[in-house]
Amino acid sequence: METDDHDDGGVLVPPSNFSMVEDGIYRSGFPQPENFSYLTTLNLRSIIYLCPEPYPEENLRYLEANNIKLFQFGIEGKTDPMPKDTVLDALKVLVDVRNHPILIHCKRGKHRTGCLVGCLRKVQSWCLSSVLEEYQKNAGVKWRQRDLKFIETFDIVSLRQCLLSIMYRYHGYGFKRKRLVFEEENVQKPQAAKV
Amino acid sequence: METDDHDDGGVLVPPSNFSMVEDGIYRSGFPQPENFSYLTTLNLRSIIYLCPEPYPEENLRYLEANNIKLFQFGIEGKTDPMPKDTVLDALKVLVDVRNHPILIHCKRGKHRTGCLVGCLRKVQSWCLSSVLEEYQKNAGVKWRQRDLKFIETFDIVSLRQCLLSIMYRYHGYGFKRKRLVFEEENVQKPQAAKV
What we know:
Chains A, B: InterPro entries: PFA-DSPs, Prot-tyrosine_phosphatase-like, Siw14-like, Tyr_Pase_AS, TYR_PHOSPHATASE_DUAL_dom. Chains A, B: Belongs to the protein-tyrosine phosphatase family. Atypical dual-specificity phosphatase Siw14-like subfamily. Two copies of one chain form a homodimer. By secondary structure, chain A is of the alpha/beta class. The first copy, chain A, has one domain: Alpha-Beta Complex (Protein-Tyrosine Phosphatase, Chain A), CATH 3.90.190.10. Helix content of chain A is 47%, strand content 10%. Chain A has helices at 36-41, 57-65, 84-95, 112-123, 128-139, 145-153, 157-187, and strands spanning 19-22, 25-28, 46-49, 69-72, 102-105. A five-stranded mixed β-sheet of chain A has the order 1-2-5-3-4, with helices on one face. In chain A, a hairpin with a 2-residue loop joins strand 1 and strand 2. In chain A, helix 4 (112-123) packs antiparallel against helix 5 (128-139). The N and C termini of chain A lie far apart (70 Å). Chain A binds chain B through residues 8, 10-14, 16-23, 124-127, 130, 133-134, 137-138, 140, and chain B through 8, 10-14, 16-23, 124-127, 130, 133-134, 137-138, 140.
């Protein structure tokens, strides 16, 4: 663990706009050196960073010293619309529990982070009004109508297919066959065998 | 588990103003029947309810069917100042991991819940500005100056003493002696033995 140059006499300083999303998932604004002591208590394994700007040297040193992996997805702050494919890639990293505990952050933890968390909530089957309430709570007066629209129209089917393929890889053919039988039942009635 | 009369076709509806505080600790506004399916996914063991009004029959039935214990601390919504002893009692229930996973709620999840969570953050050694930022994020435009003052002046020493006594009970004399030696070192220099 890195020697801490930012000792505040035992007081912990979480990053701005910090909150817990789920077991092993956190969100915040950009972590500053005075937040490192607090971050250490989270035992992070990874960080999802959603801005195009290079990660600061001091933060990179902290990550290296604490063996934290950085996943950077460069999304412009003023982008309209948000890049769906990039958000989908970030979502794949986010739902992979091998990367947990994980912190998502952009600059303020409001728009880019809010959109990614909103998409995660859709994967978790949250109703849309609850997803938007959470987005707005974290964005405050800075909330953007176009972000709400992005979240609402974001298609999670391809992510569900990706999750399914991960399950196949881990659980093998037995799981796959069971799943396929299940899908056949729902999608298409099996033909009666000709005798 | 209770038969769910509020099926929304697989869509989950968290209670209003819901968020995760820590591992095994959640906060929200008053849970309605349409939120029960979501609450079930949290595997709650207890609920801290901070209003004086009786708990609704439908909610009591849900708790009973799911073996969830209710801790009620009747704090008036307009109380000024907040009752310190009652908040301390609620805090003792909250920090006891035997009650986790636990949901804290009042009516809107803003003032009474916000004060209790704020006091918890002080126990966790969060710096005051981060505690207040979290309080304000959850209270929105309804935030109250007197709540911030309550959190700032809330004395957590008696809770720390209570935690210490729990540790003594669980870890026995060895722990106690080590602790007392540690305290002696800090509080009072031991006298050199006379020879």
